[in-house]
Amino acid sequence: CVPGCASYSRKQIDQLTDFVKRSQIGAQGLIWIKKDEQGQIKSSIDKFYAPEVIAALVERFGAANGDLMLIMCGQMRKTQKQLCALRLEVAEQLGLRNPSVYAPLWVVDFPLFEWDEETQRFYATHHPFTMPNPEDIPLLDSDQGKVRSWAYDCVINGVELGGGSVRIHDSELQARMFKLLGFTEEKALAQFGCIINAFKYGAPPHAGLAFGLDRIVSMFAELDSIRDCIAFPKNNAGRDVMIDAPSNIDDAQLEELCLTIQLPESK
């Protein structure tokens, strides 16, 4: 609910709709409801829902006269991320974010697993070597969705500047994690055999943390893009315009590496 923004024009709302439909965000669209200064309600879903249903939504949002409501639908976690991007964009447009104020925080208690609706299975939120919170280990076999990880991110003004986690150092727990993530013993050995074999010699409790220096520099220099802090930045199409990459490779180079390129047939 955006206070005092019922005066937004159709063009402004269309711009927000285009913003959330960008490939980086991936929303299907944006529902809007306006409650003008006289308390009259108008929305983009008037012809789909009865007035009392829309009025109930307005009441649920706690909207006052002059407010604008923006609604998105979809799978819970995905839609939450999309709404977060929309919230930050609206705040930017309204001048609510003061770039001279730095608000650092540590994000902890991440869920260890993330449920994927398409494949109907859990995936590791970070990676399969993240240590579960010892208090939640009993939940691994009964309620994986409630298991917290021993992971942490450093965030300033909504931008992740670094992160890491405590790693699993127990071979039995690591094997259990692989099994929960759908790895057969053979597949786990094929992909992570070097790590699994290293556990035979013992591993001390250990943790890791990595900071993105380019992000830190871009934030404190008040730059809009980290591309200005990277030696060889890529453009929006993923190309390095300085060295013209990616580009075609000579057949001799491919033959030397025993590689063959098969391009899709043009339709």
How would you describe this structure to a colleague?
- The chain is an alpha+beta fold.
- It folds into two domains: 1-97, 2-Layer Sandwich (Gyrase A, domain 2); 100-237, BirA Bifunctional Protein, domain 2.
- Helices cover 29% and strands 17% of the residues.
- It is built from seven helices and nine strands.
- The strands form three sheets. It has a four-stranded antiparallel β-sheet.
- A hairpin with a 2-residue loop joins β7 and β8 (159-166).
- The protein is globular, with a radius of gyration of 24 Å.
- The model has no long low-confidence stretch (mean pLDDT 91).
Short overview:
The protein is of the alpha+beta class. It is built from seven helices and nine strands; from the N terminus they run H-E-E-H-E-H-E-E-E-E-E-H-H-E-H-H.
Taking pLDDT < 50 over at least 5 consecutive residues as the criterion, the unreliable ranges are none
Percent of residues in β-strands: 15-25%
Fill in the CATH topology of the largest domain: BirA Bifunctional Protein, domain 2
CATH architecture of the largest domain: 2-Layer Sandwich
* N-to-C series of helices and strands: HEEHEHEEEEEHHEHH
CATH secondary-structure class of the largest domain: Alpha Beta
Strands of the widest sheet, in order across it, are 4-7-8-9
Q: Rounded to an integer, what's the Rg over CA atoms?
A: 24 Å
Alpha-carbon distance between the termini? 45 Å
